Inverse folding.
């Protein structure tokens, strides 16, 4: 499990969770709630393609036609939901963007319409993040950085040349990150003396909370922190959209693996150190 920048970015769970943002935003509009329920049922059954959901997509159009001329938040929400379905479930950002632009154009005075520019900007950033992530594959060099850690000391990947390094994007408020921490610590304690290092990149916003947590958990490795949460400078640089996100690098800064957990991390570190 991971914590996502955009909860809706987990395609299936966007609509499967009836208590989530999608269903909640349907408000008291029973027609839209009924349509959302049908979509949820299909997704739970593994039906996630445009062909699978063709009837429901037509359902959005039917509702919009039925309420044509009504420039209310509830009607605008119908178009918003259709856009979200294309973006988050059908993985068709182009169609989703077109619908958001239509939302802005046809419902400019509604709350969904007034959020259109923010949505388009968010979509653009997500597409840019996907491109960045697509380039960070096994065998590729991990782009370097030169910053200061939370204590003000120099922090860079280059400083760990010759070491096997785990780049760990995480946060104290991230349950899955905390759940994986014992495995990370175990691997660190076992292999640190052999040349294994960790660089933590925290998406926390409270410096004192981060410091207290790392001291309490005896996390002695360097941490980068700028207090910007999901806007963390390095998280943005590397297109991080969910945490925990990790990259294991060899002594030359090339990617050995991504998002390794538990025994997989231990095995990869052992193998990498054996090749040094």
């Amino acid at each position: 499990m991971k914590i996502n920048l955009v909860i809706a970015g987990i395609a299936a769970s966007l609509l499967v969770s009836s208590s989530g943002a999608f269903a909640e935003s349907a408000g008291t509009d029973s027609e839209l709630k009924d349509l959302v329920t049908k979509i949820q049922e299909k997704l739970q059954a593994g039906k996630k393609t445009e062909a699978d959901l063709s009837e429901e997509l037509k359902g959005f159009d039917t509702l919009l036609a039925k309420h044509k001329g009504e420039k209310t938040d509830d009607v605008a929400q119908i178009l918003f939901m259709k856009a979200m379905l294309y973006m988050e479930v059908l993985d068709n950002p182009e169609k989703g963007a077109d619908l958001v632009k239509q939302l802005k154009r046809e419902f400019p005075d509604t709350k969904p319409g007034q959020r259109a520019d923010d949505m388009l900007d968010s979509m653009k950033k997500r597409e840019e993040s996907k491109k960045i992530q697509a380039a960070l594959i096994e065998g590729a060099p991990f782009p370097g950085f030169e910053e200061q850690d939370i204590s003000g000391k120099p922090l860079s990947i280059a400083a760990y040349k010759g070491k096997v390094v785990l780049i760990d994007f995480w946060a104290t408020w991230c349950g899955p990150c905390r759940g994986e921490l014992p495995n990370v610590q175990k691997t660190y304690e076992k292999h640190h003396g052999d040349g294994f290092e960790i660089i933590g990149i925290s998406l926390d916003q409270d410096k004192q909370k981060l410091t207290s947590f790392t001291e309490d958990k005896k996390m002695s490795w360097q941490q980068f922190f700028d207090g910007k949460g999901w806007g963390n400078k390095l998280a943005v640089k590397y297109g991080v959209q969910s945490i925990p996100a990790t990259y294991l690098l060899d002594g030359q800064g090339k990617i050995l693996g991504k998002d390794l957990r538990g025994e997989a991390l231990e095995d990869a570190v052992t193998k990498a150190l054996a090749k040094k």
The two ends are 32 Å apart (CA to CA). Residues 3-28 have pLDDT under 50 and may be disordered. The chain has twelve helices and nine strands.
